[in-house]
Design brief:
The protein is α+β, with helices and mostly antiparallel strands and 460 residues long. The chain folds into three domains: 147 residues, Beta-Lactamase (2-Layer Sandwich); 86 residues; 149 residues, Heat Shock Protein 90 (2-Layer Sandwich), CATH 3.30.565. The protein is built from seven helices and twelve strands. A hairpin with a 5-residue loop joins strand 1 and strand 2. The chain is rod-shaped, with a radius of gyration of 47 Å. The two termini are 22 Å apart.
Amino acid sequence: MRAPSILRTQAYRIVLVYVFVFAVSVAALIAFTYWNTKRALDEQTDQIIEAEITGLSEQYQQLGLRGLADVVISRSAHGGPGLYLLANRLKQPIVGNLDAWPSSMTLPGNFVEFDYQRRIENKLDTRRARGRVFVLAGGFYLLVAQDVYERYQTEKLFTTTLPWTVGLVLLLGLGGGALMSRNMLARLDSINRTSGEIMGGDLSRRVPIGEAHDEFDALAENLNAMLDRIERLMKGVREVTDSVAHDLRTPLNRLRNRLEATLRHLEPASAETSEIEAAVAETDSLITTFNALLLIAEADAGVTRGEMAPIDLSTIAADMAELYAPLAEEKGVNLEIAPSGATMIDGNRSLISQALANLVDNAIKYTPAGGKVTVTASGTPLGVELRVVDTGPGIPPAERARVVERFVRLEASRNSPGTGLGLSLVAAVARLHDAKLMLEDNAPGLRAIIRFPRQPLRPR
């Protein structure tokens, strides 16, 4: 079983969602703080400008244009953050500490931010200011502003830092999520690896327990306790199977041998002979049913997993075709084996042979005289397949899931010999090999496919 990559783990996805939400939250918090801070500073600056305009307006009303010009000259000489410019109706400067009328200052009454040139230590420096225009009587304009260069630089720092901050949060979060997922994946990988070895037949394997005593260690302890119980149950199944095999199969074989011995001492045409022959046939049916049940139990329990080895399915197919050729000829059915390619797999030869024998036997049994049965072993992009295709009556689609259950026989086959365990054994063998049994319509007839997964072969 291949472990998932770190990027596909649930832990990494959870961390990714958390980091994304955290980054959005950080960005929203910084943006909210920036907006509130900017709004507060703008209000503070606007209040200062409003107070300046009110004072200068009063000076203009009292002293006239000449007196206002003197006040503007006086305030401009202080060299503080205040900016003043008195201009005529053409917006040509009269007095003030601004060299020219800002192009962005158009409508009176609105607060506008603009760039201006200011000489600092004999160097012209581009600065940022925020101000408002006041219209004087006579068509004169008075611009009152405050230097907000420091605040503007802080705003630029905010807007520049925000994307980098969010990016750094995402980067560190993703890195931390990868490390956390890697640690979690390592813990889960040990569980998956142990599970794979147990499914491979080694029931003695256990999940390693660390020293952290965390939830993974608690899970490992519970899994190990469950595996201990499963191993005890499987051991019990083996013991029961062995006991049944010894206590029932042997007496049945002895009974059959005694019946045959008795049969040899009777007249061939006597009534007792026909009765004993019927008893022998019933005993054979019991032994066949008994062996099939044991094989199904062993396959479902995985008892025979240790007997897996590289085998060639085309050889098994050829052997089955040769074995059933006389039966097919007797029934007037054409039995063919199709050409095959690369069909090597890891499997239990005996069980796969028995499963294929059941499929071929059923196909010949239910195909009418003149029909055709084809056995194929082939490699496909989806896996290695064994196919048995016939031209018989087939199985209705609604019944295909039910016929693989034990002792299930369809109405059409009630009068034919059989136990209803053939397809059950085929399904059990498929499960043992991690294969898939598919029953499909051949129009007419049935197409039975056992598809084995492609995997590396074990060394011989």
